[in-house]
Amino acid sequence: MRSLRFYRILRTLLQHGVDEMIPKRWLPWYVRIARRCLFWLRNKHKDKPLGVRFRLALEDLGPVFVKLGQMLSTRRDLLHPDIIVQLAMLQDKVPPFPGDQAQRIIEKALNDKPVEDIFVEFQQVPLASASIAQVHTASLLLPDDSIKEVVVKVIRPDITATIHADLDLMESVAMLAARYLPDGKRLKPVEVIREYRKTLLDELNLAREAANAIQLRRNFSDSEVLYIPEVYSDYTRNNVMVMERIAGIPIGDVETLADAGVNLKLLAERGVEVFFTQVFRDSFFHADMHPGNIFVDASRPEDPRYLAIDFGIVGTLNRDDKRYLAENFIAFFNRDYRKVAELHVDSGWVPSHINIEDFESAIRTVCEPIFEKPLKEISFGHVLINLFNTARRFEMEVQPQLVLLQKTLLYVEGLGRNLYPDLDLWKTAKPYLERWMHEQVGWRAVLRSVKEHAPYWAEKLPQMPSLVYDTLQQSKMQMKIQQNYMEELLMQQQQAAESRIWAFVASTLSVSTLVLVLVAEEPWWAAGAGAVALFSWFKAWRDRPRHFIK
Questions:
Q1: First CA to last CA distance, the chain
Q2: 225 closest CA partner among 272, 173, 164
Q3: Residues 6 or more apart whose Cβ sits within 8 Å of residue 123
Q4: Distance of CA 218 to the CA centre of its chain
Q5: Domain ranges of the chain
Q6: 320 is catalytic
Q7: Which one-letter DSSP state was computed for residue 341?
Q8: CA neighbor of 96 nearest in space, from 149, 155, 139
Q9: Which residues form a coiled coil (predicted)?
Q10: Where are the beta strands (DSSP E) in 180-237?
Q11: d(C-alpha 166, C-alpha 6), whole Å
């Protein structure tokens, strides 16, 4: 089965001419010969551009490859811009599976209860269908006898085995690419596929998605800019999730938003605020913010609010990455290219042997022409492309943990500019980042640290006298041990010196004894020298150091 799947993948890629993406100079001779041997798998779409062919091939291969293409559409450091444009067009809309089958899956997941006992109404015809799951509308009967309009998300049956098989094949190909392609080590194809595996398998677990939604909802519980629907955990399992149904205008429907009188400038700026709040305040962000997952509550047009769904993919950042990112952003805003170069080296993103001055000069060459334009005309995506191309020359390795962040940032910029073309992403973000940095390193950070650690210190305070006493006693004992160590070391050095002197005397007398035996007429001279030599050897052995200090 795995061999057949591999052949189908190979056939689809070759019949779409996707192999042309790899320069021939990179291919070993035996690979080129093997390609010629597969003469029946010829490119059937020569009239189409390479980017279009690649997109069509991924669509033919199914949902796993479609989602891989969606992820690659954010990797502007890997692919040509024309291919990126095509991959961004990928949609994972697929025909739904039967509604009665979805109903049986729901009933089995919820303790074999009939849907009539759980929902007042359940629509077998799905509201939407995607590659991993489909969604049905329903009316949920709550324990307090109230009725809530909900959506029920159901994982497609038998999708798990297919996904695992395809991911295993992808990883095998990535290993070959990492080994044989000239740029394979830097681009980390194996790490990229493994990150993709984790992301995709997380999407298969609706209990995890529900937990992500609950976390985001708690983070924005008092927010006027973002609303996260409520998840009903009692009715959620690994393959079924029940969530509050929301009503809003799709973020991509700008005409409808404008007709509703929505303040598009404020909405665009709030999108930037939501993103940076999630990343730098919470270190937990919605990483799949494409137009299909974002809606707008237009009930208050002058004070619009975002509505988000689909929380299968979230991103997190550790403290160090978050700090380096914020400092990089601010350094860019301030055109401090030396700081940018140093931060890349300090963070380990660029090797330490790279010449800082050369790297600084390369970054300046990329950024200065951009900053000559009005800020509203600067595209962060364009800056990223140029910086990636520059960093490649300086051996910058791909950072898998930042892939989701890059993807989300490009989504945010795209959504914002679609809503309000004059959106100044940098001007909007700079005050927020500066304020966050001040909170991290200023007096507020000191107060927050004291507040966070106060319970710990309050617990340890009664123990402080005994801890101080124990520390002083240990210090005193350590000094005494150190003194004894030095005395013993000096004694051993003295013993070793005396032993070497006696060994030298013994060696000299031994040679003299041998000479006297050969040339002296009187044997008592040789006997006397030999006796003294033996005595000297005995003294050298006796005065040697008895043991060694470790």
A1: 62
A2: 272
A3: 99, 136, 137, 138
A4: 23
A5: 2-92, 253-441, 481-542
A6: no
A7: H
A8: 155
A9: none
A10: 226-227
A11: 8
Query: What is d(CA 432, CA 281) in angstroms, rounded to the nearest whole number?
Result: 10
Contact 308, 270 (CB under 8 A): no
Annotated binding residues for ATP, as ranges?
127-135, 153
**DSSP, residue by residue, 302-339:** TS-EEEE---S-EEE--HHHHHHHHHHHHHHHTT-HHH
- Phi/psi-derived region of residue 261, left when phi > 0, alpha when psi is between -120 and 50, beta in every other case: left
| Sequence-separated (6 or more) residues with CB below 8 Å from residue 282 | 219
Q: Is the dihedral of CA 464, 469, 475, 481 positive or negative?
A: negative
Mode of pairing for the β-strands spanning 226-227 and 305-308: parallel
Six-digit token pair at 143? Answer: 């324990």
Catalytic residue among 77, 288, 310, 543: 288
Give the Å distances, CA to CA, from 313 to 127, 208, 364. 21, 10, 35
Question: What CA–CA distance (Å, rounded) separates 31 from 36?
Answer: 9
- In tens, the pLDDT along 417-449 reads 778 877 777 677 777 777 777 776 556 666 766
Helix (H, G, I), strand (E, B) or coil at 201: helix
Phi, psi of 149 (to 5 degrees): -75, 125
Residue among 80, 92, 79, 83 nearest 49 (CA): 83
Q: What is the pTM assigned to this prediction? A: 0.67
Q: What distance in Å separates the CA atoms of residue 459 and residue 461, rounded to the nearest whole number?
A: 6
Q: 339: closest CA among 348, 327, 347?
A: 327
Sign for the CA dihedral angle at 425, 260, 245, 63 comes to: negative
What token pair was written down for 245?
């149904």
pLDDT of residue 451: 73
d(CA 327, CA 307): 30
Q: Annotated binding site: which residue ranges?
A: 127-135, 153
Q: Quick one: tokens of 77?
A: 């450091």
State the sign of the Cα–Cα–Cα–Cα dihedral 341, 384, 212, 199: negative
Whole-number Å distance between alpha carbons of 435 and 431: 6
With beta carbons less than 8 A apart as the criterion, state whether 47 and 73 touch.
no
Structure tokens given for 459: 């617990």
Contacts of 114 (CB under 8 A, 6+ apart): 107
